[in-house]
Amino acid sequence: MFTVDDVNYTLKFNRQKSNAIERQSGKSLMAEFNQTGGLIPVWLIEIMFAAALVEETDNKPIKGQKALDICGQVLEANGYKSTVTAVVNKYTDDMGFMFR
């Protein structure tokens, strides 16, 4: 999904992570997606990265400041629109039951 410094990362969402994101942000993700047409703010992308980022090869979670640093690098390398599209699409894939 994303490559930074020759390491492949992906986001893996589940209900527990979704609940943690909503508690930390104080917002419903579904409401935020609806209100923004999927173009969520950068601060929410950062929270989603911090909750769901893993190394692809070993499924190792990346947490805290390292996840935020990787998020920043991805945003700078790929741009906002590409990054937000990838994040929202991955959330939709992993949490499809929320969209039915």
Mind explaining what this structure looks like?
- This protein has 100 residues and is mainly α.
- It has one domain.
- The chain contains 5 helices and 3 strands; from the N terminus they run ββαααβαα.
- The protein has helices at residues 15-25, 29-36, 42-52, 64-78, 80-94, and strands spanning 2-4, 7-11, 53-55.
- The longest helix has 15 residues, at 64-78.
- The model has no long low-confidence stretch (mean pLDDT 96).
Can I get a quick summary?
The protein is mainly α and 100 residues long. Helix content is 60%, strand content 11%. It contains 5 helices and 3 strands; from the N terminus they run ββαααβαα.
Which consecutive residue ranges, at least 5 long each, have pLDDT under 50?
none
Walk across the major sheet and give the strand order: 1-2-3
Q: Helix segment count?
A: 5
What's the shape? globular
Helix content: 55-70%
N-to-C SSE string, H for helix and E for strand:
EEHHHEHH
SSE topology sketch:
Elements: E1 2-4, E2 7-11, H1 15-25, H2 29-36, H3 42-52, E3 53-55, H4 64-78, H5 80-94
Antiparallel strand pairs: 1-2, 2-3
Tag the structure with descriptive keywords:
single chain; 100 residues; mainly alpha; three-stranded antiparallel β-sheet; 3 strands; 11% strand
